[in-house]
């Protein structure tokens, strides 16, 4: 089962995830990070940047693959995930941009972009740790309800709900692209460690469904139940609909230090 850790703040969750990622890079300097966008993972990137400022680590060989990208935004658009990853991750962590890939959302090459991305992940030896947020629809990456657990990187149609949720990053809701290229649930399942973060009451249903609900493609986050190494980092509000919340706290309080997360 996923390890669920309830923390009292986003900052605490970011610090815990960052410590795990830092330890990974220290033992594997060319580690492959799976990078998520959105508001949720920002505390992880901020904590990692702060840790690196205090105690530098060679980041020059670290590689990264973004989870998803909008289709059809012009190159350099500030809300393209390439631009977001550059701004929020590559620059603050001092990564080499040449080592970081995002799915190609160019409409001219959509037919082959998915398989090309899968090949690049495969050539890199796979993702060591995948950072994940979860949408209110239960999506991980942009795998909206109904996505196959075997899916690979491909074009998807965003739900209207997701477009409305993401409209805050654009001037108006109709500027949010209708399509995206996203790693599939099958792609995400191949990452060696998943760290899923969620904060706030509006994520409580999605977290309860992902952690404790039936495994169903109608609840894409429930794919985590099929993975052998998952860490779920949530605040009290996002944990508020978990039936086994007390057990998770009990298990975490009694785990051995060598287990890490
Ligand atoms: P958020 O998005 O982190 O901005 O809430 C999460 C997601 O849609 O996966």
Automatic annotation (TrEMBL):
SUPFAM superfamilies in UniProt: NagB/RpiA/CoA transferase-like
Keyword terms: Carbohydrate metabolism, Hydrolase
Positions of the Glucosamine/galactosamine-6-phosphate isomerase domain: 12-225
Name of a matching Pfam family: Glucosamine_iso
Domain of life per record: Bacteria
Any one GO cellular component localisation term in the record: cytoplasm
Keyword Hydrolase: yes
A Gene Ontology biological process term: glucosamine catabolic process
GO molecular function: glucosamine-6-phosphate deaminase activity; identical protein binding
Gene3D superfamilies recorded: 3.40.50.1360
Keyword Hydrolase in record: yes
Protein name listed in UniProt: Glucosamine-6-phosphate deaminase
């Amino acid at each position: 089962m996923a390890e669920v850790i309830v923390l009292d703040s986003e900052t605490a969750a970011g610090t815990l995830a960052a410590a795990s990622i830092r330890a990974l890079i220290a033992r594997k300097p060319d580690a492959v990070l799976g990078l998520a966008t959105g508001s949720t993972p920002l505390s992880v990137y901020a904590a990692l940047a702060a840790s690196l400022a205090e105690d530098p680590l060679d980041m020059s060989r670290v590689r990264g693959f973004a989870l998803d990208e909008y289709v059809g935004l012009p190159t350099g658009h500030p809300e393209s995930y390439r631009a977001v990853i550059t701004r929020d991750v590559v620059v603050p962590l001092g990564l080499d941009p040449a080592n970081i890939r995002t799915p190609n959302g160019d409409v001219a090459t959509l037919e082959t972009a998915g398989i090309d991305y899968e090949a690049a992940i495969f050539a890199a030896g796979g993702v060591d740790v995948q950072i994940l947020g979860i949408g209110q629809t239960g999506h991980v990456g942009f795998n909206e309800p109904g996505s196959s657990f075997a899916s690979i990187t491909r074009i998807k149609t965003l739900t209207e709900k997701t477009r409305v949720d993401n409209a805050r990053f654009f001037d108006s809701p109709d500027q949010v692209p209708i399509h995206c290229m996203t790693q599939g649930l099958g792609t995400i399942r191949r990452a060696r460690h998943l760290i899923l973060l969620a904060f706030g009451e509006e994520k409580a249903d999605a977290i309860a469904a992902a952690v404790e609900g039936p495994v169903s493609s109608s609840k894409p986050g429930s794919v985590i139940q099929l993975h052998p190494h998952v860490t779920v980092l949530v605040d009290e509000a996002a944990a508020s609909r978990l039936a086994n919340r007390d057990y998770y706290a009990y298990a975490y309080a009694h785990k051995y230090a060598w287990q890490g997360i």
